[in-house]
Specification:
This protein has about 325 residues and is an alpha/beta fold. The chain has 12 helices and 6 strands. Helix content is about 45%, strand content about 10%. The protein is globular and about 60 Å long.
Amino acid sequence: MADVMPFLENVLRGKNVPEARMKEVAHHYELFGGVSPINAQNRNLIKGLEAELKKRDIALPIYFGNRNWHPMLADTLKEMAGKGVKNVLTFVTSAYSSYSGCRQYLQDIEKALQEAQVDLNIDKLRIFYNHPLFIDANVDCVKEGLAHFTPEQLKSVYIAFTAHSIPTAMASTSDYAGQLQKTCDLVAQAVGLSSYKLVYQSRSGPPTQPWLEPDILDHIKNLKQQGVSNILVHPIGFVSDHMEVIYDLDHEAKQLADELSIDMVRTKSSGNSPKFAELMGALVQERLQSEMDASTEKPCAFGTPLPDVCAPDCCAYTPMRPPQAATQK
């Protein structure tokens, strides 16, 4: 628990988040022993990627760096440079375009390079929300979740796809909401269900700032009024079952569903499917091949593949800064 507040300060530095909200989130960690599951899940992803690269005869070492807690990215870059690494492919565990899901990572990489004072050429792998293997990974997890319902319940089950809410001002500078909606449509179609909706969770901004809606809790209440009694909640906007998924869905949403006598099942996020490790390996192989042949085909389930290199103005957004405290004389 002693690490939780310093971690949250790193996450929220420069963001207009009230201190009361930070303490509230710290309590979420307290409920789970102060341990976030995300590092262990990232290490599981690394194991999966190691196996995929071996399968594809790609001999590349894999390193792990976080932007908000240990192992910190700057420390990882120092380690890499010390071992003679010059060129780096970076897989970011975020499938969709937005400031916080794409551009901010690029900024964090630049910041970490400056902090580490190393000379590395770092290329971020492309956004993968519409890669067929990402769709397959989500479909796997949804099918596993549906298996918890009886055949009779399946006749009326409703899917609530959840993603992290972001300020509407941030959403307006990217195709975040549109990408999510298209992904939801394809996954729902693949499992043969037409009753579904994209909703949001984990809002952290002040009440005066508009964020993407509807919120998952409000949506569950609305479904109850419509007579829905069986809900599958799938965190399609997330790769790992980290603290926000565990608390906001397994704790808050499940508690509300129980109070309303709704049978709610929460699926695992896409990173738990073997298809996700296959996706990571495919993206690495695709990028290596495209370096040698620009005409390399990029698999795409719908729309067009996003470019390897983001445009200079991609997902541009200036986060709101916390108000300066008044100086008392």
